[in-house]
Amino acid sequence: MRYHNVPPTSRIGSFGKPLARSMSQISFPDELALYGPGPAAQPCPTLAAAQTYCRRLARCHYENFTVASWLLPAQLRQHFCNIYAYCRWSDDLADETAGGQQSLLLLDWWQSQLDDCYRGVASHPVFVALAETIRGFEIPIEPFRSLLIAFKQDQTCTRYETFDDLLAYCRNSANPVGRLVLYLGRCHDESRGLLADSICTGLQLANFWQDVARDYRIGRIYLPQESCRRAGYPEAMFARGEFNPQFRELLAGEVARAEAFFDAGQPLVAQVPPSLRISVQLFIDGGRAILQAIRKLDYNVWHTRPVVGKWKKLNLLLGACLVRRRIANPPSSEARP
Fold this sequence. Notes:
The protein is mainly α. It folds into two domains: 1-141, Farnesyl Diphosphate Synthase; 157-326, Farnesyl Diphosphate Synthase. Helix content is 65%, strand content 0%. The chain has 16 helices and no strands. The protein has helices at 28-35, 47-61, 65-71, 74-95, 100-118, 125-137, 142-153, 163-173, 175-184, 190-210, 212-217, 225-231, 235-240, 245-265, 274-296, 310-328. The protein is globular.
């Protein structure tokens, strides 16, 4: 995810007072100057101001936030924003700065802020808000730390030799998010956690296969090197953005592997509280829809980025509602033939 370069916004007074312009007009370097390390950092905000910051951050940078907020129980929406804001800042520290050593130093600073939060001395607006979520839902530090491991890995690792190597990356880059959702639903245990891991890994893989061209432009290849060699698709073909039978075979195999993770995670829908079932089903259906969009392009993601259109998203929402209703009202045994 990328921000456009836009003019810096002006602020009125200290943190927590109104912004002179919409937050959608603030570039990440401007936010880093305001709330990052250094003498110009804003003072510790009130809880209310920090929560407002996280809500605005989510609405400005998460394109599906409005729909997603309708599906979440009202009492979880703020906490969802708090966790999203943490992930957003982590991602931007990795990808919206100079990269390499500078990004690693900034991620180390962010980790120190996380550690301070768990010690009860949060000062950054994201952590002031997140601290309430952590306390209220008894969330351990490990999922947040795991995400930072993945963001740091992105600064040093741009190729993955085997599919197992890629799965190890997904365990830190994607799976913690599903576990955080389970904590918000007060239903986290290892059995459900493994099902959530399958869904999140499937989503991460679907995003990778959707963005092969974009990732290569920023120097990253997530398709396993062993799979590329087996299909006869060397890196020289990546450099040319070459679509050919070898690439079709390569991506078709990886799309099929991603879909298997959604199949494995599907039982989670029936095992979470009813208030979360639509959201979990939409995670699965949205990932499947990306894979289907790739197939409709005959796997030529070099020339066109596969997307899920608005009508398709509406159909996914309706389908998830029907799944929730079916789980909540299963047919009686007498009605079965």
